[in-house]
Hints:
By secondary structure, this protein is an alpha/beta fold. 39% of the residues lie in helices and 16% in strands.
Amino acid sequence: xxxxxxxxxxxxxxxxxxxxxxxxxxxxxxxxxxxxxxxxxxxxxxxxxxxxxxxxxxxxxxxxxxxxxxxxxxxxxxxxxxxxxxxxxxxxxxxxxxxxxxxxxxxxxxxxxxxxxxxxxxxxxxxxxxxxxxxxxxxxxxxxxxxxxxxxxxxxxxxxxxxxxxxxxxxxxxxxxxxxxxxxxxxxxxxxxxxxxxxxxxxxxxxxxxxxxxxxxxxxxxxxxxxxxxxxxxxxxxxxxxxxxxxxxxxxxxxxxxxxxxxxxxxxxxxxxxxx
Length: 276
């Protein structure tokens, strides 16, 4: 059974998502009820909700939605990775308002802001505070920005990081060589983990298992089985596959691993990283 560490839910009647207007394939409601049906069929028994880069004034509403889902009898939802603005002077107050029973981690999408945002003193000081509070930080960058991830991990050595989507490799553009070098450098930082999540979205539509294999195997080879976790990245994964296809590909790609390696990847590492 897997912990899905990267589920996005979209509730447009309650929350504003400015970026969705530019991605018509995703610009609809994505509900927990629909996700749950598939999740229970394919071996997902717990899930962390990943923030959906909503409007800043909706962040607390998004976390409240997750809390409501957690309270449902038999819910798979076990926590939220909350949106945040570490570049803001009000970050301390924001952290104090979070419910630790709900919020298990923090993310600020970095490919939608100038590269120097994550390099500012205030951003790094606030990400350091996450380490003091035991809150991991998900790093969401494009392949060209992996140096930013390396710099941030070095600047905040006591904060636990999780690299989303294998660093968004340019699979369709055959960007493996440059990506692999950067991943090897990033993996040297022991405070960084890697999330193998929905990377079929970055391949061409005719991708096969062998298209994804070099990327998955390099991540595992560099980070090791104790620093990798799985995520669906639903519904973004539906751009080039379905949730069940992504799970089937994952299971095929790790078929040669030992039982202890598979369980570490599927749920044990996630339980440790996010205290769930």
